[in-house]
Specification:
The protein is mainly beta. The chain is globular and about 50 Å long.
């Protein structure tokens, strides 16, 4: 298995609940760190939501492994950001038997 080309710097973000002052909460995203990644497109589709077209792309994002529980280890409740682009993490798996890298399967949804 060849080594990934980690050439894109992504911000790993995690959700945070903030009290709204009325007994509820709002969800915001906070940066959990910067990771170098290899980003590869997998599949794409278009669908209609409320009469508007939405484009959805699926990506495979490879990053260096981090220990379980570490803030720098991506998980499915998090997302990556690259400028205005947001990649929602759907699943994470170890990429190689030596456990040097993780593969994150992510979606990017864009209004067309």
């Amino acid at each position: 298995m060849k080594r990934p080309h980690l050439n894109r710097r992504l911000t790993l973000e995690r959700p945070e609940r903030v009290a709204d002052g009325a007994g509820g909460f709002n969800e915001t995203w906070t940066a959990a760190g910067q990771l170098w990644a290899e980003v590869s497109a997998r599949t794409g589709s278009e669908r209609r939501v409320g009469g508007a077209a939405r484009s959805q792309m699926r990506f495979k994002i490879v990053v260096r492994n981090a220990p379980m529980g570490a803030d720098s280890r991506p998980s499915p409740d998090q997302r990556f950001r690259e400028g205005d682009r947001v990649f929602v993490i759907r699943a994470v798996a170890e990429r190689d038997p030596a456990r040097m890298y993780l593969t994150c399967f992510a979606d990017e949804e864009v209004a067309v």
